[in-house]
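Below is just one:
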Amino acid sequence: MALVEKYINPFTDFGFKKLFGTELNKDLLIDFLNEVVLPKERRIKDLTYRKNEHIGNTELDRKAIFDLYCIGTDGERFIVEMQKAKQNYFKDRSVFYSTFPIQEQAQRGDWDYQLSEVYTVGILDFVFSDDEAKDEKGKKSEQTKQNAVRHEVKLKNEYCQVFYDKLTFIYLEMPNFNKRENELETLYDKWLYVLKYLPTFSERPRKLQERIFQRLFEAAEIAKFSPEEKEQYEESLKSYRDLKNVIDTAFDEGENKGKIEGKLEEKINNIKKALVRKKLTIEEIAEDFDTTIDFVLQIKESHNLF
């Protein structure tokens, strides 16, 4: 597969972790969290990467594999995931994942249960089709219109007062971000713009002249990759395209359910059956269905086939 883009696609596994998951590019993740995730009065100066795979306390507990997991300077926990396609029980999965950084804070002995903040961040390459808040007449509320891209979720009581402010879910519906370059004003806007359109650029846009974006474009330039990195990226890009073609089409969308393309649905179902039988390795399944190992792993995770 010949690569024609100058910059990597951050929605691929390789691209996302290349930009945000290494010590070399840690400053990119810190700036992203400060400008897009955290409230204006909060800032982190540094962070520490932690292992992204977490196992439950017992053999019966499920495991969670995060894209990125890190801890800020004041103990804040951040789970950051690039979600490429719709999944069944996506909200359940987000809540389940958030329990791991909570539980790991438990201390032995005389502990007062004080916890550090936990942020679960989902950068979504899709929109919540069933989550539009509507008013009494069934129309989309003004609040929903104003927050079409960034959604912040906290635990609240029946009076819509925040009950617990240390657990926050941030979802960025990237397809809803439609600002053009001449409309970019804040660093928040610029981060969303570069995440959505990075693979389409042939050079750095004039509006993105801040030093942090100079760093990002340098890290994202495919020509600077080693041969091994280019091969890994090509594999990741193929997996991303397969996943978008299959899962987005086969996902149950209610009224659009009858429009699911039969061949794609059949392919994903056959991969699921092979995973459930556990007679073939991931590599063998990928070979049998003419797809990538990464794609099979995505199907396995998205359908909770652990």
In short: The longest strand covers residues 162-173. Residues 131-137, 142-147, 257-261 have pLDDT under 50 and may be disordered.
